[in-house]
Specification:
Elements (H helix, E strand, L loop, with lengths): L3 E7 L9 E5 L2 E5 L2 H18 L11 E9 L15 E2 L6 H12 L10 E10 L7 E8 L9
Parallel strand pairs: 4-6
Antiparallel strand pairs: 1-7, 2-3, 4-7, 5-6
Length: 150
Amino acid sequence: MGRKINFTIAGDPVAQGRPRFSNRGGFVRAYDPAKSRDAKQHIRYAASQAMEILDGKMLDGPLVFKAQFGLILPKSQWRKRTPVPMRWRAKKPDLDNLVKTCTDAMEGIVYQNDSQLVRYVCEKVTVAQGDAPFTKIMIEEAEDRSLSID
């Protein structure tokens, strides 16, 4: 196994929003919504802190991306007698949009380009009652081997 980094980001995971457009001086400009932009900045900071352990050298070659997105349990689902445990979340936001926010933010910090990511292992859960939301990320250099889907 090659080099790898792990880090956790406290707070609600944010899905990549639709690009916004503005018209300035006859030119159309696309930009990230404020919520996505702020979330990416937070991820960049956490990733750069984790990269200091690897002396700031970016990961090379094919990479494996693993993530767990823990979204907060709505207050309307809280139970007094038997607290609700962690469970799968089959509601919005979409998992692929959560991943997109993270992979775009780490480009140029953890790896050169997100095209280096060859395998994704991700899950979206609702945290246990009373627990804080989070995003856990692990990226490692992949072994050279072929996979088959059987």
